[in-house]
Design a protein that fits this description.
By secondary structure, the chain is α+β, with helices and mostly antiparallel strands. The chain has helices at residues 2-35, 52-67, 72-87, 100-105, 193-206, 265-304, and strands spanning 112-116, 122-135, 141-154, 157-170, 175-184, 221-228, 252-255. Strand 3 (141-154) and strand 4 (157-170) form a beta hairpin.
Length: 307
């Protein structure tokens, strides 16, 4: 009889414990909703800092804006892309942009080409991706898109980076061409190990920090172009890909750090993240081209040694 009573008490105590845990959990869930109900300052420009942590958050935002959104990974990607362009054999890169006959006869798109723009500057054009899709906002609409990257080599790394997102919407009787561009006119590069040591030594003698200074990304431009089917745009090259330089005014232009018309902070962060992600893809494409060239050299060497 005592065993049954003890067993019953144990079950009763367990039920009370579980019910108390559920009550405490529900209390914390509903009480915590008031704490996190207020949106952060970076997502709401109209928010006024009142709490100490909000004041510190606003100060960090202003510091980052004043510095031009420096990013270590972006500088590292710029430096890696510049070094990869030096490792790739330019004689194995076809000159572009090609012509219509090439598009109809060659069963694949060139991964990378080299050429000169209208101003006489050398560039490498890297195909990031291309494909087809559709949207159903009002009625089904097909579109094709191509994403390309123009890399301008400089004395130490890159002198300019341009990303093109080209989309053609096919309608019933007409279609629309759209271009979205990311332009970085002053891409930063991390210094080489020797240069880093010299810079660090000079900074230590001056009594400052020995950390390498990151480049500013304040000059990143975002542009949007649009043209109907009845107007042949001047931005297309012979192979249907937008040229790096063309005489066409954008409908919209945004600068990452524009003092006269500042962009919301959350949009600035989104631009930096998107640009960083596209740089990763461009570097992966260049690495693929370099590995292909090295494999071709190895195969040729093996063929020569077969005697």
């Amino acid at each position: 009889m005592e065993k049954k009573v003890n067993h019953f008490n144990f079950i009763l105590n367990a039920k009370r414990t579980v019910s108390s845990l559920i009550t405490v959990s529900v209390f914390f869930i509903f009480s915590g909703s008031d704490i996190y109900s207020k949106s952060p300052l970076w997502s709401d420009p109209a928010s006024v800092p009142t709490l100490p942590e909000e004041v510190a958050e606003m100060e960090n935002i202003e510091k980052q804006r004043k510095a031009g959104f420096p990013d270590y990974e972006i500088d590292a990607l710029h430096a890696a892309i510049g070094r990869m362009l030096l490792r790739i054999d330019p004689s194995k890169i076809p000159e572009g942009p090609g012509n219509f006959k090439e598009l109809t006869e060659v069963p694949f798109t060139r991964k990378i080409i080299r050429g000169k723009d209208s101003t006489g500057k050398d560039f490498y054009r890297v195909r990031i991706r291309e494909g087809k899709g559709y949207s159903t906002d009002i009625y089904p609409m097909l579109y094709t898109y191509r994403v390309d990257c123009y890399l301008y080599p400089g004395e130490k790394g890159l002198s300019q980076v341009i990303f093109h997102f080209y989309r053609i919407n096919h309608g019933k009787d007409n279609y629309v061409r759209e271009i979205r561009r990311f332009i970085h006119t002053a891409p930063g590069n991390l210094p080489e190990p020797g240069e880093n040591q010299e810079a660090a030594a000079g900074q230590e003698t001056a009594g400052t920090s020995s950390v390498a200074k990151l480049a500013s990304n304040a000059d990143v431009m975002v542009e949007y172009y649009e043209a109907p089917s009845k107007i042949r745009p001047s931005w297309e090259g012979p192979d249907g890909v937008p040229l790096p330089v063309f005489d066409y005014k954008p409908l919209l232009t945004f600068k990452l750090m524009d003092e006269n018309n500042p962009m919301p902070y959350r949009r600035q962060v989104a631009v930096v993240r998107r640009y960083r992600r596209m740089l990763r893809t461009a570097l992966a494409s260049l690495e693929f081209v370099y590995r292909s060239q090295e494999l071709e050299k190895a195969l040729i060497l093996e063929k020569v040694m077969e005697f």
